[in-house]
Amino acid sequence: MTEIVPVWTEAFRVRSYEVDARGEATAAALCNYLQEAADRHAASYGVAVDQIVAAHGETWVLHRLALRVRRPVRRREELRVETWPGGRERLYAVREYRLLDADGAAIAEGASAWLVIDPVARRLLRNPRTNLDWRSERERAWPGAFREKIAAPTGAIREAALSVRRSDIDVNAHANHVHFVSWALEAMPDGHERASRLETVEVEYVAEALAGDAVVVRAAPEAGGGRWLHELRRAGDGAVLARARSTWTAR
Question: Which end of the chain is more exposed for a tag (fewer CB within 10 A), N or C?
């Protein structure tokens, strides 16, 4: 049965360790704000990760994440995240986000789509005991999120290599989903962010990354130059871990 819940609001201040060389909050920092607000909201209803593990032996994993940034967010800036559940779509529980500045003006919008898995067997639960049917009266924050399938990069491929650190691991014993956002952007050309600002990023999570995994990041521009495709693969077996799409606008 669908349960209607109010919008949750969480306040943040951009910290010095969350900004880049320009003094602007990184995409990962903004995604961490979304993650924290979502966790706090879920916990208030007893459906946060630690709570459903204890109650049902189940856990949440992220399948899709989307963020659209309207303007740069700067060091020490105060903002708040509004988040609300968007209900169930097939096997996914959808969550919406809006980031506002101190004056209430929109900074960014986002969305996420979550699955419930068995944390021991590491398999999808098609009929979990955890309720996926939470909804708010609010409409979608970004209706265009998740509308388009993310393709693999082709053509002029750029690559970067990295290793999953133990400090990247979260309570589900795999690399936290926010790290994938940073990793996807590692293969962008040097100096790209000086001339362009990240406008949107969407990530589709395919498989887990574990401590010690070597990861190869591949990226290539799509026709038109303002949009890039990204792919993360495990070096050992070539398995796709995630695909992403980013769009950029001139500064």
Answer: N
Short-list 125, 146, 118, 119, CA closest to 205: 146
Confirm if 53 and 119 have CB atoms less than 8 A apart. yes
- pLDDT at position 107: 97
Residues 6+ apart with CB under 8 A from 162: 183, 186, 214, 215, 217
Q: Give the Å distances, CA to CA, from 12 to 43, 66, 201.
A: 18, 20, 21
Which helix (H) or strand (E) covers residue 78, if one does? strand 78-89
- The pLDDT averaged over each successive group of 10 residues in the chain (251 residues) is 88 98 96 98 95 95 98 97 94 96 97 96 94 89 91 93 98 97 95 91 98 98 86 98 96 87
pTM above 0.70? yes
CB 131, CB 87: distance < 8 Å:
no
Q: How far apart are CA 106 and CA 167, in angstroms?
A: 32
Domains in the chain, ordered, with CATH?
Answer: 3-135 (3.10.129.10), 158-250 (3.10.129.10)
Give me the phi and psi of 156, to 5 degrees please.
-80, 85
